[in-house]
C-alpha cells in the first residue's frame, strides 16, 4: 500500500511523521473521509471544501490548493489500483516544540492521504437493521469545539463509542448540550414520521451523505425538515436510519430498547438505500 505523505508516495511501513507533530501531540489538525465507487470520487468537491473549511476555522493553511488536493487524492487511488475505496485525508499542524501554541510549528503542515478499504458494520445490519442506544456523553458544545468541524480531535465521539461498546453496542446517539438529539458517534441520524423526513440541525457534523439523502428525498417528493428533535420523537418514529460516508445508509430498528416502526427496515429507508446506490454510480471525479 502506497501512502501519500508530504508530496511523495511511500510504503505503508515508511509512512511516518514526527512525534513532535502537533497533530499527534494535541489533535491539532483536520481530516476527511471520502469514498470512491467504480473509479469515481463521490462528492469530491464537497469533501475537499469541508476539509478547507475546517482548516480555515482552526487557522491551518493547507500547503496545497483545492485543485492540487483533488489531484493528489486521485493519484493516491491510482497508485494503489483501487476502483472502490475509502480515502482518508489528514492535515496536521506539523512539527513544533512542546506547547499548545500552533506558532511553535515552524515547519509546514503535513498532508497525508491513505486509500484503503473500509468495512464499518456487519452486512447483516444493512439488511435487518441495527440496534443502538443513547449515551450519556454529550456532543461537544458548539461554542467549545463545533461539531461541524472535522478536526483530529475526535475524543468526544470516541468516548461515546467506548460508552456504547461497554453496553454491547457499536453505534450510539449523542445528545447535544441541551439534551436534543444531535447525531451518532460517526453518522448523522434521520427519522421518518408520517411520510416526512426529519433530521437534527444543531450540534452536528453537516454530513455530505446527509445532504445527498435530503437531495434524494426532495427529488422523490418527500418533505424534509431540519430541526431540533427530542429523543421521544426517535422512539415514536416510523423509521430511523443513519448516514455517513463510511456507513452509507444503515437502518436502525431499535433505540434504547424501543422498537422503531415495525422493527424492520422501513420502505422509505429502503428507497433511500437504492437511490443512494444509484447516485454513487452516476457522478464523481473520474480517475
Ligand atoms: C460525527 C460525524 N457525524 C456525521 C458523519 C457523516 O458525515 P459524512 O456523511 O460527511 O461522512 C461523520 C462522518 O464523517 C461523523 O464523523
Show the helix and strand layout.
Layout: E1 2-5, E2 8-11, H1 22-26, E3 29-37, E4 40-41, H2 44-57, H3 66-79, E5 85-92, E6 110-116, H4 123-128, E7 130-134, H5 155-166, E8 172-175, E9 181-184, E10 188-193, E11 196-199, H6 208-219, E12 224-226, H7 231-235, E13 239-244, E14 248-255, E15 258-259, H8 267-282, E16 285-286
Parallel strand pairs: 7-8, 7-14, 11-12
Antiparallel strand pairs: 1-2, 1-6, 3-4, 3-5, 4-16, 5-6, 8-9, 10-11, 10-13, 13-14, 14-15
Helix pairs in contact: 6-8
Features of the shown structure:
287 residues; single chain; 8 helices; alpha+beta
Explain what you see:
By secondary structure, the protein is of the alpha+beta class. The protein is about 30% helix and about 25% strand. Strands 7, 8, 9, 10, 11, 12, 13, 14 and 15 form a 9-stranded mixed β-sheet that branches. A 7-stranded antiparallel β-sheet has the order 2-1-6-5-3-4-16. The longest helix is centred in the last third of the chain and has 16 residues, at about 265-280. The chain is globular. The two termini are about 20 Å apart. The model has no long low-confidence stretch (mean pLDDT about 95). The structure holds pyridoxal-5'-phosphate. Pyridoxal-5'-phosphate (PLP) binds next to helix 6 and strand 13.
